[in-house]
Structure formats: C-alpha cells, structure tokens
Design brief:
Layout: H1 3-11, H2 25-30, H3 33-51, H4 58-83, H5 91-108, H6 113-138, H7 142-165
C-alpha cells in the first residue's frame, strides 16, 4: 500500500451508532413495539382469570374468541392497507353496510340468509373497489376518499333502511330462513 492510502485509513474515524450495533437476541425481541401489546394482553388475560371465575369456562373462551374473530378479520385487511401506507376510515361503516344489505336483501326479497350474505359480499366488494378506484385514478389521499365513503355510506344506510322498512333498523335475523 502506498503511504497516501495508509494516511487515509489512519485518519478515518470510526463512528459508533447505537442503532446499528449488534444486539443480543433477547434484547432485539424486547425492543419490538408489539411485545408491549403482547405483555398487556397476557396481563389482562391473567387478571380476568384470577378475578372472574366464570371467565375460566370454555363457553367464555368461545365467546371471547368469537368476538375477537369478527374484529380480527377486519383488522387484518386494515393492517395490510396501513402497511402499504394507506388508511381506510370507511371500514367500520362498510361492515354495517354489508350486514344491513344481507339482512334487508334476505328479509325484503324473501331469500335465504345465505343468498343475502352472498349479495352483501358483492356490495362490500363494490365499496372496496370504488374506494380503491378513486384513490388510484384521482391520486387523492386514501384518508379523504375513505372519509367521504364513510359519510356517504352512513347516509345511505339510514336513508335506505328508513325508505324500505319505515324505521332505521332491520328485522331480527332469527326470523329469517336459513
């Protein structure tokens, strides 16, 4: 090596940055943000296991898992959008729209409940396609597009149920075929 290269290497300072230093496996695991949520969920679960004896029954666990699944399915889709840098404000009211569509189609058209659910799936897919199409074609941020969808769907839900049934509620699902 030449003396100039030796001088360049000797004068090069090593910068230590704590963000890129080597960490142990346990330390890497504990600094992840989802670990705090996991510990919180475990603490709440243990708390209710100790304080509320009915919570220990298999029926209670089934109820908790059922409620978690209905929220979790929607949360997975919203999480995928957030990973992609988008946001969907209309997801909650879209669930209400699809459930109203399922019950109103099945009850008012005297169809089987499964047919109403299939047609409600088509309505839900149409809402999602509408939001995605507008975001891609207009380049307006998804926050604004889905906010407007949220408001439109809320108004449509109220107006259609009021127009069709004379009230803003639908009949009980237990009275329907299927």
């Amino acid at each position: 090596m030449s003396t100039q290269q030796d001088l360049d290497l000797a004068s090069h300072k090593v910068v230590h940055d704590e963000r890129v230093k080597e960490q142990r496996r346990l330390q890497r695991l504990l600094v992840r943000p989802e670990i705090g949520s996991l510990f919180g969920a475990i603490a709440i679960f243990v708390f209710f296991m100790v304080v509320a004896p009915p919570f220990r029954s298999p029926e209670a666990l089934a109820t908790v898992l059922y409620a978690s699944s209905t929220i979790g399915i929607m949360a997975c889709a919203v999480a995928l959008l957030m990973i992609g840098g988008e946001f969907d404000l209309s997801a909650g009211v879209a669930v209400t729209t699809s459930s109203l569509a399922a019950s109103m189609i099945a009850y008012n058209l005297h169809l089987n409940l499964w047919a109403g659910a299939a047609l409600a799936l088509v309505v839900s897919l149409a809402v999602g396609f509408f939001n995605g199409y507008l975001v891609m074609k207009t380049k307006i941020p998804s926050f604004l597009i889905t906010l407007s969808s949220f408001l439109m769907l809320t108004g449509i839900n109220l107006a259609v149920t009021k127009l069709v049934t004379g009230q803003v509620a639908t009949p009980s699902v237990s009275d329907m075929a299927g």
